[in-house]
């Protein structure tokens, strides 16, 4: 089964990166709603995982404690490196390849990078450069485009950069999926097409962006920052084309859990 509850935690984070009381209420209500839905289908076990919005919030412990008190369920926090590893697992399974992969994942708060040529990645890293983070940074488009590739390169060891450059580049987040649709090729994203679209996105309001193919209304405000980060990742890793995987961290987590059950 699949059941989605949209939380919009980007709106619940204040200037200090603290989740508001309303945001905590929304998380608790979402968990309770899913618990009720699962009773209908008699699922034997339910584990709730939280990613960077909760993990990196100033009051993450308070959020976890309040949700547990209200629902009886404790949120499990996934580290950025674990998310990167899950993205790698998902992409490797989706493409069914034994080739070297360079997996790129742009989230709201962070980006996740992983690369390797085996079942487990040779390296996995998370950086606080997600689309929401960049949107809230106050930096201009010119500043972002000028500095982001170097920030990525400086944050990674040379061996990791070599792995990312050598692997088959794969983008696995909603950001990459929507940008690929926007540029006219849902299966891949080309740097040249992205470079043409970034100035156009910069001239549009979020409402105007939401009318474009591939750009959803709730991601429209962050779509420019997501495009700039995608471009920066392509520059930093030396890839002119990125293939798109519809599987990402969620599928990677499920695959990990299935493997744990088998062992």
UniProtKB/TrEMBL annotation:
Residues 3-259 form the Ppx/GppA phosphatase N-terminal domain. GO terms for molecular function: exopolyphosphatase activity; guanosine-5'-triphosphate,3'-diphosphate diphosphatase activity. It comes from the Bacteria. The keyword DNA-binding does not apply. Keywords: Hydrolase. Its EC number is 3.6.1.11, 3.6.1.40. InterPro entries: ATPase_NBD, GppA/Ppx_hydrolase, Ppx_GppA_N. Belongs to the GppA/Ppx family. This is Exopolyphosphatase/guanosine-5'-triphosphate, 3'-diphosphate pyrophosphatase.
């Amino acid at each position: 089964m699949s059941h989605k509850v949209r939380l919009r935690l980007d709106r619940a984070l204040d200037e200090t990166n603290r989740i508001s009381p309303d945001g905590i209420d929304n998380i608790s209500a979402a968990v309770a709603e899913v618990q009720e839905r699962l009773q209908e289908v008699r699922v034997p076990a339910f584990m709730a995982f939280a990613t960077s919005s909760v993990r990196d919030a100033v009051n993450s412990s308070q959020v976890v404690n309040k949700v547990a008190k209200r629902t009886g369920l404790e949120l499990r926090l996934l580290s950025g490196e674990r998310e990167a590893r899950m993205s790698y697992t998902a992409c490797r399974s989706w493409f069914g390849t034994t080739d070297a992969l360079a997996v790129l994942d742009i989230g709201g708060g962070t980006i996740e990078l992983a690369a390797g040529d085996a079942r487990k990645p040779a390296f996995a890293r998370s950086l606080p450069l997600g689309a929401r983070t960049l949107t809230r940074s106050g930096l201009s488009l010119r500043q972002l485009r000028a500095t982001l590739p170097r920030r990525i390169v400086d944050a990674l060891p040379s061996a990791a950069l070599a792995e990312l450059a050598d692997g088959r580049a794969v983008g696995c987040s909603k950001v990459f999926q929507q940008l690929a649709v926007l540029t006219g090729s849902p299966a891949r994203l080309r740097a040249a097409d992205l470079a043409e679209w970034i100035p156009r996105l910069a001239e549009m309001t979020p409402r105007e962006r939401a009318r474009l193919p591939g750009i959803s209304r709730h991601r429209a405000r962050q779509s420019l920052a997501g495009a700039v980060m995608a471009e920066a990742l392509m520059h930093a890793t030396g890839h002119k084309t990125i293939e798109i995987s519809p599987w990402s961290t969620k599928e990677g987590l499920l695959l990990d859990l299935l493997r744990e059950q088998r062992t």
